Amino acid sequence: MTYARTLLVALLTISLGISSAQNSQKRGGTKKPLYVELSGSGYDRGLQHGKALKSEIADVLRPFKEDLKISRERDPDSLIAEFLHATDFIPAIKKWTPDLLDEVKGIADGSGQKFETIFVYQLPDEIWVYFDKLDAHHCSGIGVAKTASHPAYVAQNMDLESWRHGSQAVLHILQSATMPEQFIFTSAGLIAANGVNNSSIGVCVNTLMQLNAAHDGLPVAFVIRGLLAKKSEQSALEFIKAIRHASGQNYILGIGDKVYDFEASATKVVRYTPVAGDSLVYHTNHPLANDDLKPWWAKRLQQRTPEELKNTNAYVRFASLESRLAKGVCDIDERTVKEILRSKDSELYPICVPLRSGASVYTFGSTIMTLSEHPSLQVTFGPPDLSEYVLYSFRSH
């Protein structure tokens, strides 16, 4: 089969899948994410994950590899081998989150997939960095501190590749002697996209491609899970500041009553505070506090006028968040957060990105983490304007 024909078949397959999903949601059907309970050692958790979602993992790895092939016009297995040869993330994983490397091995064994493939699948941000995917504008996030009228919230529209549709999953990690109970929102086979634990720690992330990266740092998915393994404010804050970050990323971190925003690069972790008093944070996909910039972004900032930047994807969505959050923090309750996450103030660059035939990115799922005394997670299957939030509550706290 020629490359052109392979490309056509792949695009038709993705297009038909998106059309089917759109029709299902238009008919009013609200699907729930896949749900799996995990317990035991890292390897045991991965093995349970891999076995429970074996067919879904196989289904999502096919377009994952096809996307690599199409975007780079090369054999995906050779690209995976090249990527692994050029990077060295495993020492950092072994140092900071060793049980998660075992978990990835368990996912590979349970699903019957090659470890190398499953390992690289854990690294979407790091792949974007390696291939300089400059259009990797994903996710809009919000953090609201507790007030007298409402608990703290951390919320996000998780914008990912359209070929992931149908792989939405919630991993429920049961409490152990050393680790808190957790709800993880993710794609089948991936250890984390974001999540919350029963120690009232929640984390959401936004890609910051413009910041310098480290080929030997700790990848984003492992940072998320490392944070969610913590039980205290001090240990979580020490962790995010101590590690060397593999790729530029913004972390919105909720801990009990408080919210934090950190822009992390290879050499710096800088706190961003858009509102006085630290009661409210929000972010999209351009650095606002960290100056550890890649040369191409520093050059682009010099070449573009503020007006030109203002009309680009991340800036448009940021302005929408800023406008909608320009009220007293006491007035920003759960209903307000949902309205923001469902909003489409810009037709071209909305916060809620629809699932369109031929589009490369859409809102894979929307998450709202309620913290403070009774933490919980709410998740949608796809864009929140077409799907209701599903509530996941901890059994005990």
Describe the structure.
The protein has an 8-stranded mixed sheet, covered by helices on one side. The protein has a 6-stranded antiparallel sheet with strand order 11-2-3-12-13-14, covered by helices on one side. The model is unreliable at 1-28 (pLDDT under 50). It has helices spanning 3-26, 42-52, 54-72, 76-86, 90-96, 98-111, 115-121, 124-130, 220-228, 233-242, 295-303, 306-310, 313-324, 334-341; strands spanning 34-38, 140-144, 153-161, 168-173, 182-187, 194-197, 201-207, 249-255, 258-264, 269-271, 280-283, 361-370, 376-379, 390-393. It is 39% helix and 20% strand. The chain starts with a helix and ends with a strand. By secondary structure, it is α+β, with helices and mostly antiparallel strands. The protein has 14 helices and 14 strands. The radius of gyration is 20 Å and the shape is globular. The longest helix is centred in the first third of the chain and has 24 residues, at 3-26. A hairpin with a 3-residue loop joins strand 6 (194-197) and strand 7.
Characterize this entry briefly.
Helix content is 39%, strand content 20%.
State mean pLDDT (0 to 100 scale). Answer: 91
Structural class: alpha+beta
Low-confidence runs: 1-28
Instruction: Outline the biggest β-sheet.
Output: 8 strands, mixed
Instruction: Report helical residue fraction.
Output: 25-40%
Rg on CA atoms, Å: 20 Å
Number of helices: 14
The run of helices and strands is HEHHHHHHHEEEEEEHHEEEEHHHHEEE
The outline comes out as: globular
| DSSP strand tally | 14
Spatial sequence of strands, sheet with the most strands: 1-4-5-6-7-8-9-10
| Straight-line N-to-C gap | 56 Å
Q: Which range does the strand content fall in?
A: 15-25%
